[in-house]
Amino acid sequence: MSTDTAVDARRTDTRERILATASGLFAERGFAGTSIRDISDALGVTKAALYYHFASKDDILRAIVDQPISAIRGVMELEPDLGSAAARRQFIADIIGAMADCTPESVAVFKDPQIQAMVGAEISASGITNVLSITLAGALSGTADPAQIEPEHLVRASAAVAAGLAVIDTWHLAFPDTAKFSEESTAYIVDTVSAILER
Amino acid sequence: MSTDTAVDARRTDTRERILATASGLFAERGFAGTSIRDISDALGVTKAALYYHFASKDDILRAIVDQPISAIRGVMELEPDLGSAAARRQFIADIIGAMADCTPESVAVFKDPQIQAMVGAEISASGITNVLSITLAGALSGTADPAQIEPEHLVRASAAVAAGLAVIDTWHLAFPDTAKFSEESTAYIVDTVSAILER
DNA sequence: GTCTATATTGCGATAGAC
DNA sequence: GTCTATCGCAATATAGAC
Fold first, then answer.
1. By the 8 A CB rule, do A11 and A52 touch?
2. Which of A98-107, B4-13, B55-64 has the highest mean pLDDT?
3. Cα B91–chain centre separation
């Protein structure tokens, strides 16, 4: 019943609050720059409480980056056509659209170089923004082989992805009243990324 | 004599090697994600040796970010005219030109959100990339008052600065044989930043 | 100028009461 | 589900020999 769902919401509330607080701090200070204590203090609970909900600090990060990563992965696994500027634009729009359920903070976390560097290992982010850059650069060069990518295309794609992240990050700071990942903002992000990529 | 200069070079060599190694690691793993031990191991010396050359870990960071920060500050203190697109383009070119003596690693360090957040305090970076973004956004809005900046201009300026950082970072990765901050690369950076800013 | 050895603090993580 | 208390360890930083 409605009472039950309310109770369930309460029950999982702390977990969600941990993720919200942690993602904000990770985005602001980086992963290594944020301690478990920082997170628990910001929430007004003890460290031990966090460890009831998550097995480790890495586990918290995993839960945060999981959504944006699988969103991006999901679009990439469709192996879309990237042969034209219009197709690439659609691809970018799909990526942003897939991330619409993510919070901007969970995306901003990827600015931390350390998080991007957590390759393959336990957290299989595998430098998701790098993967994105290389994919787009490969499309510009018309090859799937990273070794054959034209250097300038790699530079351009990296700039486009970095700019996209910056827009996501700055948007809700510049427009505090706007819904996060609104239609307006996603269109703007796609425009920006596409313009840099196809310049 | 030439022998003396060679000896002098030897003498200061370790300090420079520390900075080179540290900036590379900071850029790769972030500041908090890099320990003194990481740096000393990479250099093949002990931690104590580092503390002979630098008073603290913060001190190492300070020495690294000092050059790019004063380069940017130096250009900004000229209070250049930013009233037209051409003037802003010249301003960007001046900034990049002033950074020509810096290593790309020392610039890439600014990707770490923690380093950017070290505001005012001891290390007075005061979010130098944010300052740059706000300056450019203010120019677009035709105001010096941050409160009067149009939100869209802030978003655009942030994207431009982030893209510029990405180009600096990716360039020598994409063109390993090119001299860092060569004429060709600086022109490309200016073009990229300017195009995004004036879009 | 670099080393070994150590002081000290704060971190991630766990045990067990409530 | 949250608490107090604590363990083990890695981090920054220092002292003093060479």
1. no
2. B55-64
3. 16
**What chain B residue is nearest to A191 in terms of C-alpha separation?**
B199
The helix (run of H) or strand (run of E) holding residue B143 is none
Q: Which of B183, B185, B194, B139 is nearest to B161 (CA)?
A: B194
A64-78 pLDDT per residue, tens? 999 999 999 999 999
CATH architecture of B3-198: Orthogonal Bundle (1.10)
Cα separations in angstroms, A93 against A72, A89, A192, A194, B104: 11, 6, 11, 9, 32
B56-72 average pLDDT score: 94
Residue tagged 């104590």 (tokens) = B48
The count of C-alpha atoms lying within 13 angstroms of the C-alpha of B152, restricted to the half-sphere facing its C-beta, is: 8
SS3 category, B77? coil
User: Tokens 């996060």 belong to which residue?
Assistant: A180
Q: How close does chain A come to B152, measured CA to CA in Å?
A: 7
DSSP-derived letter for residue A179 is: P
Q: B15 near B53, Cβ under 8 Å? A: yes
CA B33 to chain centre: 19
Predicted TM-score (pTM) of the model is 0.92
Over 80: is that where the pLDDT of B123 sits? no
* Residue B58 beta carbon within 7 A of nucleic strand D: yes
CB-strand contact B53/D, under 7 Å: no
Q: What is the pLDDT of residues B81-122, one digit of tens each?
A: 999 999 999 999 999 999 988 999 999 999 888 888 774 444
Question: Domains of chain B: which residue ranges?
Answer: 3-198
A106 or A126, which is more confident: A106
Radius of gyration of chain B (CA): 18
Q: Amino acid identity of B46? A: T
From CA B105, how far away is CA B21, in angstroms rounded? 9
- Let me know: does B132 contact B117? Beta carbons within 8 Å: no
CB-based contacts of B198: which residues, under 8 Å, 6+ apart? B85, B88, B89
3-state helix vs strand vs coil in chain B, percent to 5: 75, 0, 25
Chain B interface, Cβ < 8 Å to A: 27-33, 111-114, 117, 151-152, 154-156, 158-167, 169-171, 173-175, 188, 192, 195-196, 199
